[in-house]
Structure formats: structure tokens, C-alpha cells
Design goal:
The protein is mainly alpha-helical. The protein has a domain of 102 residues. Helix 5 packs parallel to helix 7, helix 6 runs antiparallel to helix 7 and helix 7 packs antiparallel against helix 9.
Length: 173
């Protein structure tokens, strides 16, 4: 699929690999507007308010990620998160992912940048997977609403699963 998209890009029939996704989005939006224009308009207003509300946090996080990548050279990243860091580097990355509260919108590009700078696939997989599956920062609220036992069990299993996924990704890739 990726090869086909890239081949179509070279031929000039698509402007970007996201052409198909944007086309589906446009079709869905058109259908929604035809079905109920007022409801679609209200959804856009709600989405716009949500974007404005979250924009400062997203911009601050993007700035922090940019600053971090600007300070950490590829050699430092490779030493801390590369193949040479071994199991300890993977465990540290999983721990940092577990305690960090970061939207996926920021985490995935960060992971790509770290990989391009010399980080190991296993280590970055552990970071991203634990970031998504474990919520240390949100655990108090989760425990209050769902119970301490459930929160500890979910986060513990999520952390173990993140490590298993990281090992599988490291072996496969």
C-alpha cells in the first residue's frame, strides 16, 4: 500500500499520501452537510472551541519537544536510547512514557524524530506504547472514579503489555 501511494506520488496523480484520507473526509463532510447543515455547523463550532482551548497546551508541548530535540544531539540520543542503551534504556523509556501526559498528536512525530536521530525501535516502542496504555498522571482521578484495584491492575497490565509489545517490535523491526 505504501509503495503504491509513493508510486502514485511520483507519477503526479496525488499531491500527498494523505489524498485518500482527505477525499474520504470531504465526502463525509459533504454527506453531513446535505443531511443536516445546522447540526454540522454546530459540530464545527464545538470543534473550533475545543481546538482553541487545547492550542496553548499543544503549542507548549511542541515547543518543548522542539527544544529538547534541538539540545539533544543525535549522538546523545543514540547513547541514551539507541541499541547500546540495552534493556535499561528500554525500561527507562517505558517509565518515562508511563508518567508523561502527552497527546498522541505530539508523541508520534516525536518518536519518528527520535528514531531518525538514532534511538532503537524497541526503546521508542516502549516509550510510545506505555505513553498510550499507562496513565500514572491520571491514576488518582481514575482510582477515584473506577477504584484503586482496577487502576493498579489496568496500569500494571498496560505497562507489562507495553514491554512485551516493545520486545516484539524490536525483534520484528
Amino acid at each position: 500500500m505504501v509503495v503504491q501511494l509513493n508510486a502514485r506520488n511520483r507519477e503526479g496523480s496525488h499531491d500527498s499520501p494523505y489524498h485518500d484520507i482527505y477525499s474520504l473526509l470531504a465526502i463525509g463532510l459533504t454527506f453531513s452537510m446535505i443531511k443536516n447543515r445546522q447540526k454540522t455547523g454546530r459540530v464545527f463550532i464545538i470543534a473550533g472551541k475545543g481546538l482553541l482551548k487545547s492550542a496553548p497546551t499543544l503549542l507548549a508541548m511542541m515547543g518543548l519537544v522542539g527544544l529538547t530535540l534541538g539540545v539533544l544531539t543525535p549522538k546523545i540520543i543514540s547513547n541514551l536510547l539507541g541499541e547500546g542503551a540495552g534493556v535499561l534504556g528500554t525500561l527507562i523509556a517505558a517509565g518515562v512514557g508511563a508518567i508523561t501526559l502527552m497527546p498522541s498528536l505530539i508523541a508520534f512525530p516525536l518518536a519518528g524524530s527520535l528514531l531518525r536521530s538514532g534511538a532503537a525501535v524497541m526503546t521508542i516502542s516502549a516509550f510510545v506504547t506505555s505513553l498510550v496504555m499507562v496513565g500514572v498522571a491520571t491514576a488518582p482521578m481514575e482510582a477515584k472514579n473506577l477504584g484503586l484495584r482496577f487502576t493498579l491492575l489496568r496500569n500494571g497490565l498496560g505497562f507489562i503489555s507495553a514491554l512485551i509489545i516493545a520486545v516484539v517490535m524490536g525483534v520484528l523491526l
